[in-house]
Amino acid sequence: MAVYRNAQGYMLSPQATTVGAGATSTIASTIQVACMLEDLIISSTAFDGVVSQIRVAGQSIFASSGSVPTNVFSPVAQTEGYRSISIPINQQQQLSLDVVGGAAGANYSFACGTTPIPQDAVVPTDMIGSALSYVAGFDGGFTAIAAGATATLSMTVLRPIVLGRLVLCLDTDPDSVNGLADVNINSILVNNIEMKSGDAASSIPAQVCAVRSTLDQDLLLAYPAELNSTVSVQITNNTAAGINIGGGIFCMPDLRS
């Protein structure tokens, strides 16, 4: 039996927008038919931009105090499913992103998969509870770490969530598999509780959490974090040059709610 996609039901995207160096611009697209929002990707001519906010029908779906590098949403990211927004949106409502430019002006756009749904299946965004928790970013977007130095990425959780897939990236082309080589994770703390399986002296290669990592469910933190919880990731840069590193944690459905 043939299966057809509804008219106006293929990918939700805006016009490409130029974001100036260090400037913040809102990039938005208006849906034409009721849909479920699926996987989100961001396209850009630069690799050092960050997303400071994502909204569905005016409601924020950010779950932390921080920002997420656009590289986390790269088309090459091995995050299928985890990056699915999974929120229904009604016709003439908007998906919008606030993007902060990097060192130079660049063009940004996004594409979000859509699955058309009956209009009566749309649930207002103020009634979907934990589904509004999409992604949690670290404060500052990118953190600079000098050669041989250690720094900590941190965030404050803004609503009860379950921490899911951890993704780390540099402000360089995420398609490079060697970008995080010789960078290590010393500690992952949720309210000062250690998440690592190893002892205090152990470290996890940061490449494990790279945009293109294929470990899939092994990368799920799968740990609850309540309102105002703190999450921190301590990282050591063992390379001979400084790096700028950032990332985000995609949220999992909270089965407790």
Verbal overview:
By secondary structure, the chain is an all-beta fold. The chain folds into two domains: 104 residues, Jelly Rolls; 117 residues, Jelly Rolls (Sandwich), CATH 2.60.120. Helix content is 0%, strand content 46%. It is built from no helices and 18 strands. Strands 2, 4, 5, 6 and 8 form a five-stranded antiparallel β-sheet that branches. A hairpin with a 2-residue loop joins strand 13 and strand 14. The protein is globular and about 55 Å long. 39% of the residues are buried.
By CATH, the topology of the largest domain is Jelly Rolls
Which percent bin holds the helix content?
under 10%
Mean pLDDT: 92
CA-atom Rg in angstroms: 18 Å
Strand content: over 45%
CATH top level label of the largest domain: Mainly Beta
Helical segment count: 0
The shape is globular
Please name the CATH architecture of the largest domain.
Answer: Sandwich
Number of domains: 2
Assembly status: single chain
Number of strands: 18
The biggest beta sheet reads: 5 strands, antiparallel
